[in-house]
């Protein structure tokens, strides 16, 4: 099976030529080989033909190549952009893409028809568009790809504080040819610095390193997605760091307090007891998330209902806890900061346990768990607040001005 790129395009998006972007996209989603000459094609082969002057995302290609034979049309002007077909239709498909004329028997789809809705595998609302690249719309398309790189359901810091500054840093990394794994590696170094500073009781210095690390944790993922440089090594480096370091930071913070016990509401507990509660709450929270995702395959625990998605904004992950720790230092109350981080972890885990139990009850009653995202439509003129917050609404709003069909 093969793919071939039709026409040429001089424009780049996030430092990638269209030849590079299409090749990386196809290789990411399929096992197709690049077709160099028509003589390579065998009678039983299938082939994907794509125009170079249109933006076609990986999820669109994946859905298109799952069809028997299919034609992909532009979201802007309705022109033929890509065709997935058998070898005997190669010549007619090539002519159709080059000349935009001629009769055909392909089933035609837009990107919206192929991708619109909740993606159970990605556990997010995923809607894409196919847009022609021009000199005028490159900034809009780069912003669209950047918006698409964000998860709709995440914490409040990642959602509202980091997107704008991170975009400029991602752009600088592209210009300086800095790889996502390099950014992640520097994040590991900052993680160690922050933990050691907390251990020494140097909380302002630790928070400076920690906040910079959390910012770079956003940058590396966005850089990898917009430049199509995601890798297995980067995935392991990033996710291992995300899972391992928060409780280590919290314990280093506690050790930096220089106390042997902490009182709460008249009850005194040793620092070790507080540490056990903190670690147990953190681990159990992760366990309930994982069990929910494993058992109820159609939704993560934060995608089930709108309430769960709102909970994700403030659940006891690193960034909400960092807000508490920062406030505690500003109030010169680091001990209270540790206590509140532990309490947030306990409360969040209790809610996750409750939601998991409720999910079990639903399944035992022979009903299915479905995400609320399965029923939303982000293309409506004024969707509800939850849709604006937790779907790809920003990306759709960014690209909408380009979607007026040519007469």
Summarize the structure in words.
The chain is α/β, with parallel strands linked by helices and 407 residues long. It folds into 2 domains: 2-119, Spore Coat Polysaccharide Biosynthesis Protein SpsA, Chain A (Alpha-Beta Complex); 151-375, CDP-alcohol phosphotransferase transmembrane (TM) domain (Four Helix Bundle (Hemerythrin (Met), subunit A)), CATH 1.20.120. The protein is built from 16 helices and 14 strands. It has helices spanning 18-29, 58-64, 90-99, 111-115, 138-148, 156-160, 163-176, 180-200, 203-226, 232-256, 271-295, 306-314, 318-330, 334-364, 385-390, 393-399, and strands at residues 2-6, 12-13, 16-17, 33-34, 46-51, 54-55, 70-73, 80-86, 107-110, 118-119, 124-125, 131-132, 261-264, 267-270. It has a 6-stranded mixed beta sheet with strand order 4-1-5-8-7-9, with helices on both faces. Strand 7 (70-73) and strand 8 form a beta hairpin. Helix 9 (203-226) runs antiparallel to helix 13, helix 10 packs antiparallel against helix 11 (271-295) and helix 11 (271-295) packs parallel to helix 14 (334-364). The two termini are 36 Å apart.
């Amino acid at each position: 099976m093969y793919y071939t790129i039709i026409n040429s395009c001089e424009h780049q998006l996030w430092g990638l030529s269209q030849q590079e972007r299409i090749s990386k996209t196809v290789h990411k989603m399929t096992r197709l080989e690049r077709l160099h000459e028509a003589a390579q094609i065998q009678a039983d082969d299938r082939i994907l033909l794509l125009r170079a002057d249109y933006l076609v995302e990986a999820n669109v290609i994946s859905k298109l190549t799952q069809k028997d034979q299919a034609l992909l049309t532009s979201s802007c002007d309705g022109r033929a952009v890509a065709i997935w077909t058998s070898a005997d239709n190669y010549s007619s498909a090539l002519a159709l893409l080059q000349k935009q004329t001629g009769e055909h028997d392909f089933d035609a789809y837009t990107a919206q028809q192929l991708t619109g809705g909740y993606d159970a595998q990605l556990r997010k609302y995923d809607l894409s568009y196919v847009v022609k690249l021009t000199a005028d719309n490159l900034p809009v398309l780069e912003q669209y790809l950047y918006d698409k790189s964000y998860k709709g359901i995440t914490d409040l810091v990642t959602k509202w504080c980091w997107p704008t500054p991170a975009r400029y840093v991602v752009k600088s990394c592209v210009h300086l040819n800095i790889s996502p794994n390099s950014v992640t590696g520097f994040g590991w170094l900052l993680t160690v610095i922050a933990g050691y500073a907390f251990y020494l009781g140097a909380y302002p210095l630790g928070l400076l390193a920690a906040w910079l690390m959390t910012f770079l944790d956003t940058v590396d993922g966005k850089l990898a997605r917009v430049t199509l440089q995601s890798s297995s090594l980067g995935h392991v480096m990033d996710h291992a760091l995300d899972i391992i370091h928060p409780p280590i930071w919290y314990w280093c913070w506690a050790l930096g307090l220089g106390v042997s016990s902490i009182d709460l509401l008249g009850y005194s507990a040793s620092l070790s007891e507080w540490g056990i509660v903190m670690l147990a709450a953190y681990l159990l929270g992760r366990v309930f998330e994982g069990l929910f995702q494993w058992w109820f395959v159609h939704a993560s625990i934060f995608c089930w209902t709108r309430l769960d998605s709102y909970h994700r904004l403030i659940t006891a992950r690193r960034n909400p806890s960092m807000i508490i720790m920062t406030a505690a230092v500003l109030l010169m109350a680091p001990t209270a900061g540790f206590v509140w981080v532990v309490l947030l972890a306990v409360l969040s885990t209790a809610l996750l346990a409750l939601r998991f139990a409720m999910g079990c009850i639903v399944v035992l009653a022979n009903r299915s768990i479905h995400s609320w995202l399965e029923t939303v439509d982000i293309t409506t003129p004024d969707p509800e607040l939850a849709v604006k917050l937790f779907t790809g609404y920003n990306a759709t709003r960014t690209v909408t001005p380009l979607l007026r069909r040519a007469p």
